[in-house]
Amino acid sequence: MKLVPSRRFKIDEQKPLRKLSIVLPVYNEKATIAATIRRVLQSVVPLERELIIVDDFSRDGTRDLLPALVEQMRATFSANIDLVMHEHNQGKGAALRTGFKHATGDVVLIQDADLEYDPRDYPALLEPMLEGFADVVFGNRFHGGSHRVLYFWHYVSNQALTSFCNMLTNLNLTDMEVGYKVFRREILDHLRFRSDRFGFEPEFTIKVARLGCRIYEVPIRYHGRTYEEGKKITWKDGVAAVWHILRFRFFE
User: Residue 114: CB partners within 8 Å, gap ≥ 6?
Assistant: First the structure.
């Protein structure tokens, strides 16, 4: 077992962090997308902000309403919003890669479109980075913040996958699968992500560990959805995550 290495990339520690890029992948979120964008733009952050929305070929009408909605939000909030449309469905990981290519900030934050994650947590997520302690910050859904009580087996699966990933990376994360991940944009110059679907979560974790990033966790609020409310991840994604952990730890 290799220990987590020291940081394998150079960072100008004197360069101030001035701009935040929020990457918002969207797929079939007609019911929540307007509220999500509004909450993102209403959140209080001590940085200049840009919002990058990537629609992954939604089929429920989200794609049709986004252009007008984005124009409305730009006018209401005087916001810097970039809207990108995929021409066919590729998956969350692919949508994130598209968003990363458009990010111009010093810090990148991943925001899901389903209202499970609360933008009021942005200050807490950014604090370790702004204080110079962290290169990457993970949210933690299960310790500290309020969270909706839902599926027992989802929790067990999450803890098993997190523990398995920890064993192979020598980390002590408590929520590897969390959607809230924040990182310095320089990291994108040193990593190439390949996962198209939900395999992005273990891929990201393993690759930033291998790169020697300083990783912090902070408690967040979590308002999980039921399947009737639109939750998309299934047991098949959990099985696939095991393969992705092995794949990115040993074969790539």
Answer: 29, 32, 36, 225, 230, 231
